[in-house]
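Quick question, first post here. What does this chain look like in 3D?
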Amino acid sequence: MLMTSAIGVCALHSAPTHSRRAVLTNAAAAAVTTSLPLAAQAKGAIEGDFIKDLPSAVAKYSVNEEGDAAVYKPKARIEAAGSKSSKVKMYMPDPGPLSNGDFVDAMWFRDSTGKVLGAEQYRSTGKSFTEPVEGVKGKSIEPSFQARVDAGAGTIFPVIHSAKGSVWEGKPIVVK
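> Answer (accepted):
Ran it through. C-alpha cells below.
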C-alpha cells in the first residue's frame, strides 16, 4: 500500500513521463509480487534470488523424490558431539545432481515434527549465498552444509531441494 502511494505521489508532482495506466499497472504488479509467499517466489530455481527467511520457505516444501536416489539422496553425519550442541554435516553423494544437469539450491535439517533446525541456500556453482562470489566462475561442486544442533534434539533428517524442483530426504541421524 505504501509503495502504491509513493508511486502515485511521484506521478502527480513530476512531469508526466508515463501514463497513469502504466503507473497503476506497475504499482499493481509490485504489490502482487511482494504479497506472494516466499515459497511461491522461490519455486523452481532459487538462483539469483536470496531468500531472507529460508527456514520458513523450505518448511513449506514436501518430499517429492523425482530422479535417482543414488544421485539425489543427501547423507548426514555427526562431526562433533558436545554437551550443549553437536555439529552435524550434510553432504551429497558422488556423483550428485550436477551429473544429472541439476544442482542443489537449498539444504536443511529438520526434526521429527518438521521444524527446520538449520538451512542454507546455494548457487549453481555449489557455493553458499553467504560465501563471496569470485570473478571467474570455476568448476561447480556439490555443496555440503554444517549446522549446530542442540544436544538432545533426537532424530533429525537431512533434506535438499534441487533447481528442478525435487525434494529429497536422507536417512535420519540421532543427536543425543
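The chain has a mean pLDDT of 77.
The first strand starts at residue 75 and ends at 81.
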